[in-house]
Amino acid sequence: MSLKKRLLSCALVSLLATSVSAFAQPTVEIKTNKGIIVVELNQEKAPNTVANFLKYANDGFYTGTIFHRVISGFMIQGGGLDKNLNEKTTRAPIKNEADNGLANTIGTIAMARTNDPHSASSQFFINVANNSFLNHSDKSERGWGYTVFGKVVKGMDVVERIAKMPTDGGDVPMQTIAIESVTVVK
């Protein structure tokens, strides 16, 4: 093979590798005491939310937090409280990106927040139902919605098992559902 062909071939391989990596989405493993949940994050549609989540994950923030709010047929929420239900100190809230076209459907992960649309920090939830009422409808306080930033690609059985666990009157699981780690795997 001539030098010119080899250089062209190398350039094409390099271009292809760059193109593929541009579309590769980060994947995280949420290890719980009930099993492992693997989530593919969508940094194309929710870049700031994904960056925020990855920062918390890489800092080890989620280790020792729990799924503290579990509602069968709705969602499981975690990532902000320890096993004694004490809220962990977080960084500043992030801007809501719920107008990104992603919907709160079964198996998607979204940011939890207060009534302030731009108050999400570390807490997230995984939908166990199609929750269209949580989607963005307009940029009013009521219409902002909840930012979806990824989807479960493995371990939805674990999510559903957690969603069916008995809770007290305040949706707190009777048994601790610990988040042992959140690790970036890709």
UniProtKB/TrEMBL annotation:
Its EC number is 5.2.1.8. Residues 1-24 form the signal peptide. One of its GO terms (biological process) is protein folding. It is an enzyme of class 5 (isomerase). Residues 35-184 form the PPIase cyclophilin-type domain. One of its GO terms (molecular function) is peptidyl-prolyl cis-trans isomerase activity. It catalyses: [protein]-peptidylproline (omega=180) = [protein]-peptidylproline (omega=0). Keywords: Isomerase, Rotamase, Signal. It comes from the Bacteria. Pfam families: Pro_isomerase. PPIases accelerate the folding of proteins. It catalyzes the cis-trans isomerization of proline imidic peptide bonds in oligopeptides. Belongs to the cyclophilin-type PPIase family. PANTHER family: PEPTIDYL-PROLYL CIS-TRANS ISOMERASE CYP38, CHLOROPLASTIC. This is Peptidyl-prolyl cis-trans isomerase. It comes from Candidatus Methylopumilus turicensis.
